[in-house]
Amino acid sequence: MTSLKCISVMTTCSVFGALLAIIFQALWTLNQLNTVTLILTGLLALENVHRGGINEGYEKPKVAVGYGGCADLVVNATQLLSYPEDGVSFEKDELLSEITDEKKLIDNFAHYFENGAASERFISDDKLFKRLLTKAKTKLKDSIRWTLGGNAPMMGVRFLKEGADVLLATRMSEKLRKHLPTEIQLVGDVIDEDDIHMILEYKTGETWGPFTAPRANRFIVHNDHRNPFLQAVEWLEDALKNFQPRLLVVSGIQMMDTFKFEPGVREARIEKVKEQMIAQPRNTLIHFEMASYVEKDLLSLIEKNILPYTDSIGMNEQEVANLNRKLSKDTVASATDSNPRVAHTLDLMREVFVNLRSSYASNSKNKRPLTRMHVHTLAYQVILIVKGSQWNNTKNAAAKAALTAHRHVCANEVINPESAMLILDSSFATTVNELIVGKPQRIKIEQKDPVSCWSESVKVQSQIIEYEICVAPVLVCRDAKQTAGAGDNISASGLVVQI
Ligand SMILES: *[C@@H]1O[C@H](CO)[C@@H](O)[C@H](O)[C@H]1NC(C)=O
Ligand SMILES: *[C@@H]1O[C@H](CO)[C@@H](O)[C@H](O)[C@H]1NC(C)=O
Ligand SMILES: *[C@@H]1O[C@H](CO)[C@@H](O)[C@H](O)[C@H]1NC(C)=O
Q1: Hey, which of 65, 157, 184 would you mutate to test ligand 3's pocket, going by the most ligand atoms within 8 Å of its Cβ?
Q2: Architecture of 46-70+151-196+228-498 per CATH?
Q3: Which UniProt keywords apply (predicted)?
């Protein structure tokens, strides 16, 4: 009797407990949904910037974008690369070398996949690349997708959609040109065949052998034989004189990474880019889009020939860590944390900023002082702007970049709060390194006004530089549809409201 009673009490208790859990879960979900909706409303309110109507003399901003382009073949990463049956041992030390064979390809993929880090690598073995292509086109032919690719065309299309007048420098086949909106002014000759990039996409939590991806991302492989020479630079030269853009975007330099050039050729090509940057008048702002680099020598060339001549740099969490490592320790970083804390990212940005501004201060002939940095991560967007510089609307730019991130990854213009989640906490610290800007502040994210902006200053040599930082939370897409091209769309949409 007593034992029966006991059982019935237990049953009642567990039913009650389960009910409570369901109610709690529902309340929690509702609360989350409410937060996401408020933040979304706040971001949308900031997104559109009043530029003045035609009567107020408003002209479309002019943007020139270089260099290069390709055809992207999007494929399911874990279906294309089978996990080696013999369970090979992965050699982590060799990661940062070129991909010369299947083994190195697998080593590299495992490393970036495990870290959820976006990366772009050159495969020097033409036959290996062809084999991968053939496999995608035959075995996976029902799930692959061809699109227009390359940083310059992607950013160009985004600028056009945001109402800019766009000049794009790239060499393309007739076939690929059909994918480019006709409103974009194109310079560059017609080529027979385009370079192909294979975009190996994977989702959050996808597994491959013993590895699980911590976030959705992609591993890009290519075997480019045209893009590394940046021939679009010459095509852009005269066109720039007539076009007189407000903004020149320099991108696609990563196509030179681990490519085998004849001695001196790469140096000469980068010098050409530098000359093009120097030739621009000061009212043409210059932006450099960073990318995934593994070759130290190429980063040294960029440090010498590109960074001193740009006003602005755009990059993701991996790229800012890599750039900081190069500038401070003269080495390259392999994949780092795919979801770094805000304080950590801000410190990296400050270090890079101080470093680049110091070299500007010591020798500024023909150089430009860095006045803008944009770092995009999965959970948030950060834009740093030097006060008194030519960049406007920083808060709006951060909001717009955050919205673009969601729209692109979810492949949907309309943001549904149920398809979004917040990864960023309700507040964040501004630094973990008191040496740079002193004691940390704690910044709370206001749901109704979700982009947090504040001012700071640093001393570089004897000059005090004041700057503003804005951080916008990203409404992270729950079910990622595409990650390739996200950085290009995000960077371009942030830039377009600031010029
Ligand atoms: C790739 O295919 C696997 C099934 O083999 C699927 O579970 C996964 O979601 C796919 N990934 C992407 C990015 O489509
Ligand atoms: C940017 O700000 C300056 C000064 O604050 C102003 O004169 C200029 O019109 C602004 N430009 C845009 C595009 O909003
Ligand atoms: C990003 O750019 C690509 C190529 O231009 C385009 O297909 C995609 O829709 C863009 N994303 C958004 C959110 O517009």
Answers
A1: 157
A2: 3-Layer(aba) Sandwich (3.40)
A3: Cytoplasm, Glycolysis, Kinase, Magnesium, Membrane, Metal-binding, Transferase, Transmembrane, Transmembrane helix
